[in-house]
Amino acid sequence: MKTGMLKISPGFEEIMPPEYRELVDNGPYGKDYGIGDLGSYKELLEEHPLCAGCGLALSLRLTLASLPMPEDTVIVGSTGCSALAFPQVALHNIHSLFGNQNAVASGLKRALKLRFPEKEKDVVVIAGDGATADIGLDMVMQSWLRREKITTIMLDNEAYANTGGQESGMSMQGAVLNMAPTGKKFPKLSLPEIAHTCGCAYVAAASPAKPKQLAKVVRRAILVAREIGPTYVQLYSPCPTNYKFNPKETVSLIKQREKDGLYQSKEYISQEAQAFLESIEVKK
Amino acid sequence: MCSEKQKNRDTVAELLHGLRNKAFITGSEAVAEAVKRANVDMAIAYPITPQSESMHLVGELFAKGYIRDYYRAENEFAVMAAVHGAALGGGRVFTATSGPGTLRAMEMFPVWAGARQPIVCAFMCRGVSLPPSIQPENIEMGMLLDTGMLMLHAENGQDFFDMILQAYLIAEQPDVHLPVGVFADGFFVTHTREEMLLPPEDCCLPPYDPGFAPVPVFDMETPPMRITRDPLLNKSNFISGSANASWHQEVLAAAERARKHIAHFMGGLLEVENPGAKIFIAASGTAVSQSREALRMMQAEGMDAGLIKIKSIRPFPASELSKALEAADLVVVPEFNAGGWLAREIRASIDRNHRVIGAPRVFGGMTMPPWLIVEEVKKALGAGQNRGGC
Fold first, then answer.
1. Residue ranges of chain B with pLDDT lower than 50?
2. Contact (Cβ atoms closer than 8 angstroms) between residue B331 and residue B280
3. Which domains does chain B have, with CATH numbers?
4. Selected residue of A21, A112, A135, A137 to mutate for chain B interface (largest B Cβ count, 10 A)
5. Which residues are paired to A156 by β-bridges?
6. What keywords were assigned to this record (chain B) (predicted)?
7. Distance CA B50, CA B322 (A)
8. For domain A3-283, is the CATH number 3.50.50.60?
9. φ, ψ for residue A255 (rounded to 5)?
10. Do residues A254 and A209 lie in contact, with contact meaning Cβ atoms separated by under 8 Å?
11. How confident is the model at residue A90, as a pLDDT?
């Protein structure tokens, strides 16, 4: 993004919507903000329509606040609850179809590389578990196998929430959901391990119950994708609406799951990525 | 490789009207010759018969530096999604597919049009159904009529070459900015060697400038705002319904605006031979070539017959057809598919449409000998006489 691109032409200040003016005056573009700065600047996500207590909304908000370079980040989303929030996100973001997000991102990243050879443009896929692990798994894995320099972030709410709470590949075995009326018959897919095997240079599982950890892995994933190759981040983001728990208990539920050994944070770093991260993190 | 030698040259005029050299090549090779001159940023391929050879040759163009990026993707849906991503990022893209690949990718085509992306895709048409067939057949065109993309139908390799270049010129007009499918009947065109006329190799289209697009490019070089389709999709109220409908109408209007550019770059949406005739054969694709032979046979017998070659299927030349067929008594429409989509289109475009005979139809790899067309004309004339000459 060119410096000053957002600036409002003289005389039009009053016409532009207030949320746009706030972004111009106090947005995160070109600043080195992190989640510690939340509350002190205009966030990229504006009045999203997701449910009260939505774990996905919390993960998305923290993810957007952790982008290392929002002014040059293009998001590719997919169909699902997150697609309801993306029109409210002040970044170029693409919603093409259900499941094709990593194929779209592959073409997009390569075209941006051709058009801006001297400039970094981060392409970040943010999609739900149905889009990533079920209908789009083919294209997700193929983008990793091709070593596309994109970051894939799964907002894992363990269900098809937007279509009314159906079982997904990421639901726990035994979960009773729509289309699994007698309980899910097979275990939750181990996508971090698959990502690792498929050649992702950096893989992490985190949750919004530990915001600092979430911010760190998102940032690392995007920086490694820029320099080395594909990266994957899985964010456990429980859904109070379809799993029918009290919306104020989202974070405590994640903590309980961790205590019970049913959720754990993970990090796989390739040697190359490790060396790269050490070089930049020491510098900082 | 294109850009260096092109400064201060009107390469569009040169490509369309300049001197050309003879080449004895196949339709697949003609595709690569067109792509070589189209200044393409990215091509993405997935193999399927009879498309594969053309995309091999496009890959060789990448290896030689004519294209800036190229890869083999995982399936046709992913190919069409990836070229969509590349187009949204501001690149000029090319891909191609055939029959079952077209159907596998189907969900993406209306997305291209809805996103107003000037993607050019070649379709080497073939059979799609049980029993399995890789043979020439263009039923897939009938399935794509309402995807919002513009559709051009090549008669031969020369058309295929010309129409791919013309497709970029039409697709990228700011008042159009829609995808264009360039269709050819598989094998008949792709695998047949014929003499063609090609412009010099150092003459290429000027590079695509996404700054002229009527929709924002997804590169964070314009202020981010609500530019995805979601506000139209997600709210069930009158405003969002109207917004969605008006966007859709604009896609259709853009296709209508393409007519003048098709006329300019291609000399019209159709061509008429022997305009004063009472009997017409109307066809598209290789059925036109077969019809030319049939026409010769009928004229040799003293019949007053003419031929209409329909080059643009979307937009469809309804008013041109209506005018050209005003005084005709009979219109025979031979097709390489079982559905008869072209005959349906023509019937919907002209009055007194009992004049339209949707025959012969061949499919599953059958050929269309010219006598078959002549026979249908005679049969229809005989039936007409029996009905008292109507």
1. 229-230, 387-390
2. yes
3. 12-211 (3.40.50.970), 270-389 (3.40.50.920)
4. A112
5. A236
6. Oxidoreductase, Pyruvate
7. 35
8. no
9. -65, -40
10. yes
11. 92
Nearest-angstrom CA–CA distance, A82 and A166: 16
User: Of A122, A124, A201, nearest to A155 (Cα)?
Assistant: A124
Instruction: Report whether A138 contacts B74 (CB < 8 A).
Output: yes
Model confidence, pTM: 0.96
* Nearest residue, CB atoms, A110 vs list B69, B221, B228: B69
Q: Are B147 and B252 in contact (CB under 8 A)?
A: no
- The complex's ipTM works out to 0.96
Distance from CA of B209 to the nearest CA of A (A): 10
**Cβ contact (<8 Å) for A94 and B218?**
yes
Tokens representing A60 are 């998305």
Whether the Cβ atoms of residue B184 and residue B160 lie closer than 8 Å to each other: yes
Pick the closest to residue B210 from A196, A178, A108, A89 (CA basis). Answer: A108
The residues on B that touch A, with CB distances below 8 Å, are 41-42, 44, 68-69, 71, 73-75, 77-79, 81-91, 93, 107-108, 111, 115, 216, 218-231, 234
pLDDT of A87: 84
Q: What is the pLDDT of residues A221-267, one digit of tens each?
A: 999 999 999 999 999 999 999 999 999 999 999 999 999 999 999 99
Tokens of B127: 């059979």
Predicted confidence (pLDDT) per residue in A86-129, tens digit:
888 999 999 989 999 999 999 999 999 999 999 999 999 999 99
Q: How far apart are CA B320 and CA A86, in angstroms?
A: 45
Residues for chain A: how many in total? 284
User: What would the mean pLDDT of A156-164 be, rounded to a whole number?
Assistant: 96
Task: Identify the CA nearest to A43 among candidates A56, A30, A57, A62.
Answer: A62
Nearest 5°: CA angle at B138, between B137 and B141?
165
